[in-house]
Amino acid sequence: MAAVQGNMVDAKDEADIKTEPVSDGFGNNHANDARLLSASPGSSAAAGNSKPAAGAPEDQQTLLAVLQFLRKNKLSESAEILRREAGLPEEVLDLKGGDSAGPGQGGSADTDGGDASSLLSRVTVSTPGGAKAPTKAGEDQPDVNVVLSAYSQQGDPALYEVYYSGLKKFIESVLDCHRAELSQVFYPLFVHMYLELVYNNHESEAKAFFEKFSGDQECYYEEDLRVLSSLTKKEHMRGNETLLDFRTSKFVLRISRDSYQLLKRHLQERQNNQIWNIIQEHLYIDIFDGMPRSKSQIDAMSGSLAGEAKREANKAKVYYGLLKEPEIELPLDDEDEEAENEEGKPKKKKPKKDSTGSKSKKQDPNAPSQTRIPLPELKDSDKLDKIMYMKEATKRIRLAPDNLPSICFYTFLNAYQGLTAVDVTDDSSLIAGGFADSTVRVWSVTPKKLRKVKTAADLNLIDKESDDVLERIMDDKTASESKCLYGHSGPVYGISFSPDRTYLLSSSEDGTVRLWSLLTFTCLVGYKGHNYPVWDTQFSPYGYYFVSGGHDRVARLWATDHHQPLRMFAGHLADVTCTRFHPNANYVATGSSDRTIRLWDVLNGNCARIFTGHKGPIHALAFSPNGKFLASGATDGRVLLWDIGHGLMVGELKGHTDTIYSLRFSRDGEILASGSMDNTVRLWDAMKAFDDLETDDFTTATGHIHLQDNSQELLLGTYMTKSTPVIHLHFTRRNLLLAAGAYNP
Amino acid sequence: AVVRHNVVCEPSINSKRRRRKRRKVKKEEESCSVFSRIKSFCVTHVTMADREERRFAEVSRDSIKLMAESTGVDLADDVAALLAEDVCYRLREAAQTSSQFMRHAKRRKLTVEDLNRALRWSNVEAVCGYGAQDVLPFRSVKEGELFFVEDREINLIELALATNIPKGCAETMVRVNVAYLDGKGNVEPQGTVPTAVQTLSDDLLRYYQQVTRAILGEDPHLMKMALLDLQSNSKIAALLPYFVYVISGVKSVSHDLEQLNRLLHMVKSLVQNPYLYLGSYVRSLVSSVMYCILEPLAASINPLNDHWTLRDYAALLLSHIFWTHGDLVSGLYHQILLSLQKVLSDPVRPLCSHYGAVVGLHALGWKAVERVLFPHLPAYWANLQAVLDDYSVSNAQVKADGHKVYGAILVAVERLLKMKALSLSQSAEGGANAQPGSVAGSMGYRVSSPGLSPPSEPLSETVLGIASHLQAGGAGCPWEEWSPVPLPAMYSELYSFFGDSLAVRFSTGPGFGSYPPCAPACFREARKEPLGPVANPDTARKMPQLTANLNISPRQDGSPRTDPPPPSLAATGAGRSLARSSSVQRSRSSSSRSGQRSAGLSRDVFPKARFISSQSGPPAFSFVIGGRQMGRRCQGRRPFQTTFASTSSLPANPPRAYAHKLPVIGRVGKPVRRWTSSHYSLYLPL
């Protein structure tokens, strides 16, 4: 299923990109545009090659589905291009188009009529469901029925309990080393059996079954069980998102070969077809050779909505190295310094000879090629900023367990409307807050006030040749400490400054992402595409691109000058709750309510990594500055550390008692700071956590790591706030830790 | 145009059709719901679950029917059942979706708004009218287990024409503070919040600025006005921390006598303000005042600066604070005594500090002088003498200071002699009033010891308990062995120091000399007398009277306070009187300490000699503890009485023997603490 989706999305992306020249006439970033475009054909060619080669009927169907989708949305041109690209005969389009008129209308009636089906069911109609739509024409909710039909087999409902308890007895009787592994089967089996009962209208049996066995399940499935228990009727199964997840994806289990043989033999001996069918149909058992895993190993990795990640999913090579910084000659002579001073930059001391900035970095073997993803060219102001950055970096405090950072807390006072998101610029000069009353507010943290650019009429009067033209265009009358940005029509859940501090992105419940100019303090673009609440958005570290993720379970990659997304990262089984760019801008990490983290390749939109192990929705992600590691925090109050290159979990930091909303590595990556709803900031020894790593071949091969429980050793400090949940953390360029949150009396 | 008719907001039918938080309700028999969509939820009628334990709410069929009726639709039972079940499911679904909005808004509390968003996204009409932040009061109707949210009528006219237009809420802003420096500690200690002054209301802020400016400013008239207002303004409680903070700035202006003076005046005004409850800020104020008394201020380097007056004033202020607000902080008296004693016994300190200590002690009353200054005098005298005897020119300034100290000591001891003599003569003629310090005698709630005072070790320990702080930190002063020196001895000792400079004269003849030895005896006699009333258990109820008397004890102690505090325990609020009583208790206990000591109650350092000498009465004693315990520990305890028939061999019996029995008399639990409290409670009103 995932593969099918991936292909489909690819095809759609290509179509989108191809239409850009037609539909998009912006000339702002032409150079970038051209580069982007020059890159994309390469990728699409690769993808395009694979498709006809695969040639499976499934792929054909997918293509048809996409074609139909495009037609339905009156994107005939794109459809035509796709058709030609895929080498399909022209009549296919017409034929299927005629065929699909029914479902198309049905779908629209669906949305118009506002059926009680939840929002998610509609998403699936339009995205993954779309793939199946043509084959099952005439049904109002084709996808649901397709999947549900899998449950239609009629077993004796009374025997379900017997089956389950029989298996339970068997698993309890096997050797200890196998028991832990085989116990993994319980939960998916339990859910599917329950759903079968419900689907076949055996409500009372279903209830009894639930009562009897729900207590046996692992505690971290409690949340899902609660959803499950509320569902007692076949009608309810329609459009329940959790159910859809269960049915549309196979629950993945990793079991050693020995244990699997044991289970298989047992089930075949007993002729226990009911269970065997479920295992065959709904479970994906990833068999590995070697020692069975221990209970703690299994517990560390399980907990996600759809089981663990398949091992193949994490096999792809990830270029996690950093891009080479462009060489910028440092202006070390005093004249430049003075010139800068005149510009009003707060620089007093003469910069020391910069040694770190000038070190010539060799190309990191793990780094992607410089042009893998076309990046915007550096502007003069960017270079200036880089210089500033290097100067600041020389004054950076070297953090260590015995030299912890100072913490400054930015408290949002009188935020009665509800503070929902915070971001700080990289140079820590601006702070922005997104609020539940749909506003975005920007504050200047430095004495330098926020000013707008003058009006067009006034701008005409300015001498454009003057040296300080950038200063002259600003209107001093508008100077103020803060500015408020109005435009959204729902709570603002995510905000992000562009690296050059001229733009601000905000994502909102109203389904849009908005781009604001920090020169005019007006909205420039509203990016519509998600249609559902957008939970998070972030600019790429090089600007221009940004990523967003929302309730529609899709993360999208955008460029600021395109009103359509460049990539859609589909695969999560529940909301995409947080999105982060890799420091080299080639990858995007997304955390989700399905309790997995995925790493996506920006180049081809593939999912490069799936990390499972969290037991609750993920709300915070942070890449280490060297790009090798990823930290994630979730509602379960745990921080997990991941090795991106090997695709392994490498650490578990326990200590927080509530949702972790922010994570940040110090500038040199020695310290990891985590901020939580429990009103604390905690500092962790990241160096030690990563150093202690044992990566022998076996571990790398199987991905089974044995984590030692050393949270207490790694915890360097716990810092209480005064009744203020910490929702954002930021290390300044000198490694001062800034934390932000709204005071909740 | 005049609006004539009253526009009144009708609680619409719709608004009643609110689904509220899920309640456990009775669930009807299973049925397959065919309704896929429910537009409005309702949970007005709710019955508690009686069937199975479920983790979620259910809406009963009856509720649905009720809802339908209210809109004029008649539902069949089975339809209602189907609907009910579906409503439940949709509700749960909506609740699950809404929790997502809550999580992303980074809140812990699920709001109506969250639920509305969830409803909106699933194409269900949102529920309006419940957006307010404050909780909705659920009300129940007795019959029928009916719960509903009150939906009051609102008079729009009144609302529209209201004159008190609420201001918008304060602007959202960002404030930064350094929370932790180098990962260590809170930089900003709790309590000192000068920046937070800005969060006060505008009026208060302006008042604060005006007053501080006036007091610390140039204009003496303005200052007087400000001080007067500070003394009488009833609305400045919120500003108290800030004023206290300002006053704590004495340390930074120690070079400026004028400013110090003004700050002290500010203290005085605050202390005198009857509307202010100083609470634990007393401690801060006292430390500021003590600073002025004791520290070698920068201003005192210049001999032209009259820092002596400042110290005198501060000392007066200290005693004033102590007598009026000393009850607010426990152990304050002893802390003050301790620090004064420390300064006095530190020869490195400059003379002006010593002067401060002496005037401080003097201001705290003659008891303090007797306890601290007098025993310390011989040691101190040597130092002072050296200074005074040095006639070198370079020493002139120091010598002048020395004379100041000499004068202060003289004044203090004269008062001590006078008061002591007065108290002795009072006790001599009063009979019942054996010792002014131990008011115990006046009412008879106390240890009564014919012949043998109860030499309870725990008791004497508790008496010493307070002073034991002093012992611990007290440098060189043998508190433990301290016992009141009889007046003649004291007089002769002082006379040896001061000679004829002492204004108080006593004859050193036998008449007077024989008086002190008889004092303990008299005292003991006096103690025996009130045995009668003691036996009466009702006496406990008479205690309020007793405490009214007690309140005067500070004056008897020789406090500088001129008028006695109003014996108005009944008049003042209970809480206040409770607090007061503790001060009374303390001051009383400190004074009664001397009384009991004089009765031979000190620890067994000199016990034998005393007992032998005082063996005169019948060898039996009764011991009565009456009254209710103060505070919450042990309310309403009945008085009880124990009588010991003492053996004839009592003189040989060391007092220690009784010490073992005494805990049994009290309570079995924690003997010493019990004793402490019961001893204290003897005279307490509550």
Summarize the structure.
The complex is a heterodimer of chains A (745) and B (686). With 745 residues, chain A is an alpha+beta fold.
Protein architecture, described:
The complex is a heterodimer of chains A (745) and B (686). Chain A is of the alpha+beta class and 745 residues long. Helices cover 36% and strands 24% of the residues of chain A. Chain A contains 25 helices and 31 strands. In chain A, the strands form 9 sheets. Chain A has a 4-stranded antiparallel sheet, with no helix packed on it. Chain A is globular and about 90 Å long. The two termini of chain A are 48 Å apart. Chain B is mainly alpha-helical and 686 residues long. In chain B, strand 1 and strand 2 form a beta hairpin. In chain B, the strands form 3 sheets. A two-stranded antiparallel sheet of chain B has the order 1-2. A two-stranded antiparallel ribbon of chain B has the order 3-4. Chain B has a two-stranded antiparallel sheet with strand order 5-6. Chain B contains 26 helices and 6 strands. In chain B, helix 8 packs antiparallel against helix 9 and helix 14 runs antiparallel to helix 15 (396-430). Chain B is elongated and about 115 Å long. Residues 1-53, 187-198, 431-481 and 508-686 of chain B have low confidence and may be disordered. Chains A and B meet through helix 13, helix 14, strand 3, strand 5 and strand 29 of A and helix 3, helix 4 and strand 3 of B. Strand 3 of chain A pairs antiparallel with strand 3 (173-181) of chain B, so a sheet runs across the interface.
